[in-house]
Write a structure and sequence with these properties.
The longest helix has about 90 residues, at about 5-95. The protein contains four helices and no strands. The protein starts with a helix and ends in a 9-residue tail after the last helix. The protein has helices spanning about 5-95, 100-110, 120-165, 170-190. It is about 85% helix and about 0% strand.
């Protein structure tokens, strides 16, 4: 074999190796581009899910606060009626005539008696207790939504890390965490109490 033939064979081998390396680099770049595109789409989808869950959490917290205020107002009104009832009973006990005693007793009984406006003392107590329970349920729902929201936030951070690290394993872990967060929000919406908070 002559030197020219050997050089041509070496050049061909080098050229084949470079072509193969370029093809492998192109395949690797295409795989990285695909991973980046998928992660970017996932981040966008999870950001939308996060916004929806955040709105649900805020709504539950607001409902809890409003129910608590309404329950407090109902119990305050009930207490005011109890004070008025006591005043009427005291006036009845100290009345000088039978007709005055009967009038004050009648007024005292009206405070406790059920009425169409639901303002009897017993009615107000029942309403206040129901409102308190509704507020507590809304608070528990808010905690469930917040847990789902936290999982979604962590998933978005993990997807950002997966993007930098070019790691499919981190991307899959982030997807699993996001699925848990979305499931938590859906279960909360369906009224399932998380044992952690119930």
């Amino acid at each position: 074999m002559e030197a020219d033939e050997a050089r041509d064979l070496i050049d061909e081998a080098v050229e084949r190796a470079e072509t193969q390396r370029d093809a492998e680099d192109g395949t690797e770049r295409a795989a990285e581009r695909t991973l980046r595109e998928r992660v970017a789409v996932l981040i966008g989808i999870l950001a939308v899910c996060l916004a929806i869950v955040h709105m649900a959490a805020s709504g539950a917290q607001r409902a809890s606060l409003l129910k608590g205020i309404e329950a407090s107002d109902t119990f305050a009104y009930m207490q005011a009626k109890i004070v008025r009832e006591t005043v009427y009973k005291t006036a009845s006990a100290n009345a000088s005539t039978v007709s005055d005693r009967q009038a004050w007793t009648k007024e005292a009984l009206k405070m406790r008696a059920p009425d169409s406006a639901q303002h009897g003392i017993g009615q107000l107590q029942s309403k206040g207790e129901a409102l308190r329970k509704e507020g507590e349920a809304a608070a528990v729902a808010g905690e469930g939504y917040e847990l789902g929201e936290t999982a979604l936030q962590m998933a978005i951070v993990l997807l950002s890390i997966a993007l930098v690290a070019r790691s499919r394993a981190i991307m899959y872990a982030a997807c699993a965490l996001a699925a848990c967060g979305i499931a938590m929000a859906i279960l909360t919406k369906l009224g399932v109490q998380i044992p952690l908070f119930g």
